[in-house]
Design goal:
It contains 4 helices and 12 strands. By secondary structure, the chain is of the alpha+beta class. Belongs to the MipA/OmpV family.
Length: 289
């Protein structure tokens, strides 16, 4: 017998069932649709995402596929699945299922390394100035660390447009049973269109509770050398992002984006972390199918 441990898990299972139902409806309607609701593009270029975790290499960005589907209610945006509850000219309320972000710094192969999560995702970097933590860092045996799995986050997403400024809020709960954490994300963005140029500036913040940060950046006693266990509190990470695109023709466009993510003190003070920020940049061409 399978026992559902919490009300949230029951809600999550109901949400998954709803998504499956919508997928079946979509599959039945595809044959009757004259125009596809799918959109695909692939970016080819050079880029990098810096890695703040000790001894881990920066993450190259060379191929960035993007895909989306927009149905009557159900939608897919890269790695996000959602269901629209309400929408008008200025407001939108969705149920959302999205993967966690922080595991990309620990897992060499992660699907998030190949998809640009531009909704609420990530210059010179600044190193921490804590000799005791850096000394402990050098003594940590990474083979003893627990695996950081890709978690599914489920919750609600609310968007509002005021004077051509887009405000987006996500309230998310970890739903896969790895650490039972939650996050609150805020993004404020402004888009400017001049001819074939599209420019977008985004300011964002991501609050994570102690359970979330502890799962990814904590160091329990069984994994730490000596008595250097680390159990973080909740923290707030901030984000600044710039996007630019230039349409060349029907299929090709040029693209550049860069972001600066300033990590919360609870993350940057971890013995596993050697930088207090994450810098992402990419420049290349995008082919739209």
């Amino acid at each position: 017998m399978i026992i559902v441990k919490s009300r949230f898990h029951r809600t999550f299972l109901a949400f998954v069932a709803l998504l499956i139902l919508n997928l079946s409806i979509i599959a039945q309607s595809w044959a009757a649709e004259d125009e596809s609701r799918w959109q695909f593009s692939i970016g080819l270029g050079l880029g990098v995402r810096t890695n703040p975790v000790m001894d881990n290499d920066d993450i190259p960005l060379v191929i960035l596929p993007q895909f989306s589907y927009q149905g009557e209610r159900f939608f897919i945006q890269n790695l996000d699945l959602g269901y629209n509850l309400f929408q008008n000219n200025k407001q939108e309320l969705n149920i959302l299922l999205t993967p966690s972000y922080d595991q990309i710094f620990f897992n060499e192969w992660d699907i998030s390394n190949f998809v640009d999560r531009s909704n609420l995702a990530s210059m010179a970097g600044g190193a921490k100035d804590s000799p005791s933590l850096e000394a402990n860092n050098r003594a940590i045996d990474k083979s003893r660390l627990h695996d950081r799995h890709v978690a599914a986050l489920a919750g609600v997403e609310y968007s509002h447009t005021i004077y051509d400024v887009d405000i987006q809020v996500q309230l998310l709960q970890e739903a896969t049973g790895y650490y039972d954490g939650n996050e609150a994300r805020l993004a404020i963005s402004k888009s400017i269109n001049v001819g074939k140029h599209d420019v977008k500036l985004t300011l964002g913040a991501n609050w994570q509770n102690a359970a979330t940060i502890n799962y990814f950046y904590g160091l329990p006693e069984r994994e730490s050398p000596g008595n250097f266990a680390y159990e973080p509190n909740a923290g707030l990470t901030s984000l600044l992002r710039f996007d630019w695109a230039y349409q060349l023709d029907e299929h090709w466009s040029l693209r550049f984006f860069t972001s600066y993510r300033h990590l919360s003190h609870s993350i940057s003070n971890s013995p596993l972390v050697t930088e207090n920020n994450v810098v992402t940049a990419f420049a290349g061409g995008v082919y739209h199918f």
